[in-house]
Specification:
Layout (H helix, E strand, L loop, with lengths): L42 E5 L4 H13 L4 E4 L24 E2 L5 E2 L16 H7 L9 E4 L4 E4 L2 H10 L17 H24 L3 H21 L13 H20 L11 H13 L9 H12 L20
Parallel strand pairs: 1-2
Antiparallel strand pairs: 1-5, 3-4, 5-6
Helix pairs in contact: 1-3, 1-6, 4-5, 4-6, 6-8
Length: about 325
Amino acid sequence: MQVSGTADEEAGAPGGSGAFVRAKSEARKWIGSAEYPAEAGRYHLYVAFNCPWCHRVVLARSILQVSITMDVAFPTRTSEKDAKGRDGLWTFRPEGMRVPNGDYLSFPECTAETVFSGVSTVAEIYDMFDIPQKSLPLLVDKHTKTIVSNESAEILRMFSTYSRELGGADLDLYPEPLRPTIDEVNTWVYHEINNGSYKAGFSSSQTHYEEAYGAYFAALAKCDALLATHTFLVADTLTEADIRLFPTLFRHDPVYYSRFKLNHAFLHAYPNLLRWMRTMFRDVPGVKASSDASYLQHCKQGYFGRTGSNTIPVGPPNYPDCYY
């Protein structure tokens, strides 16, 4: 099974055009199969809090209360090359590290690696299975010590589908009557907002940047119009479409507006999106705990900490408290 709107759909764009192209996720197995039965306490997540693809699975874990253990990588990836000539690696540094602006930083949320002994980078886990990737999130089976998946959309779907078997709440984020609408919304939200923000932020072509910029804000307006008719994105109940949209909008004002040059408007220009953000924080248990001011510090370090002067913005003040 594959889930609509995954990173896989962005692979294969022509190289050298100046357009941002997301790498394909290569580990695509499923909880609920004979190989990986749905059992509470069996599975383990690796995430980085600054990563929006990780944020969606952290949100699902928190909202659904599934029994999934988790390790958190340091938000600044490596700049020096490892023995295989790779840089940009996620590392496990609970003690902290010196970052590109010269400061020594530590984050209390960051952990050591706890499943595979002696591992200091995520890339080393992939190396054990000859998978030439280094991305997060990553879901592994603690019983067999094997990789299950590194596709965030499918991990989110697994957590929802098998929430009760995984020790979580009786909450279906992908209810059958809403599936066609959820799939449709997920697809354009992924292309135009989730990945669209990266197309704008990392494009080296003015034309591609402007195309992504226009599509991004047109899609925000489309979301705002949808939210004029119901509480959440596709209905009056929470679905995975809300969880997939939230990480990008959480980052829009404090990060993407400046870092990705998405400066047409702040979220308060969209009254229904603003109300929806407040609803997510105030009324959905688990959102605030996985999207607070400490989480934002990871985001700012990850996005600004290895760009330009490597200085980290102090503000914005009272964010995300303004939604509480």
